[in-house]
Amino acid sequence: VMVTGAGGSIGGEICRQLLENRVKTLFMLDTNENELYLRARSFQTEFPDSGIVTSVVDVRGFRRVERLFSEFRPQDVFHAAAHKHVPLMEAAPDEAVTNNVMGTHNVARMAHEYGAQRFVFISTDKAVRPSSVMGATKRVGEMLVRSIGKHSDTKFSVVRFGNVLGSAGSVVPLFRQQIAAGGPVTVTDPEVRRYFMTIGEAVGLVLQVAYRDFGELCILDMGEQIRILDLARHMITMAGFIPEKDVPITFTGLRPGEKLYEQLMTEEEESTYRVDSKIFVACSPEPPADIEEVIKELIAVAERGEDEEVLALLKNLVPSYSVMQETRSMTEDG
Q: Is the entire prediction scored with pTM above 0.70?
């Protein structure tokens, strides 16, 4: 089994659960050499009898991806590699497209051409009615994977879900650091809400999608959305302090590309879904017939750094995408 983004939170947990289920050989791919090395070394200690192979690779490099598929010939592929930070990708649309669209195209195409049995694309609730470049690129990735799957013997699946607790980019470790420092704990807006699930539970459901052949588009049942302000107050209380007395809470405003709340399904998907084991299986409108041509153009303008053209083409591919008009910033606060 090949896992891209294997050094990250989701990709790493996919690797862990595959090893726990005694996968014969695990190919771990990531562009972050330090995270890949540390995670693989930990797995080799924990699972000494497993076959673990690591490769530093940027999924945007087609020739490198092709060589790895030619060498490894994976049976199953989990594509978790992606740029995920919304404000940072608002400042770099070209980077978001080359990594999240071109990289996905490279890996999915090679899975098809080298005869993989399964390909699972890890998506996000931010791909539904996207307000961010990141969300729009992940929605394009969904469409691209489904389009390739229409003409392939490889079984292509998309798994869409919301935030996972404890991931590298999660708000939970940030809140812990802020509480330990005495505050303030920063919340973007008093009404902002997000879906949350533990990494282990989310990945367990991802593996069910992969190996029980649920369908082309699967959405994890994340339960009810949690208000981030309530989460912050709860964490302060659990740390033994009184919220807004011992530890202040400040509101910083929504960052570029962020929404008050997310959705897991579009209206069309909501009208078609069925439920099985905390997994929604939905039908989504067919990708545009000319999606390959438009994506080639999208990648070309992204490689030239033509951000306005990138946004226009994303809007063309994802009509529900609301392009942010504010000036983009590379600061953490947006």
A: yes
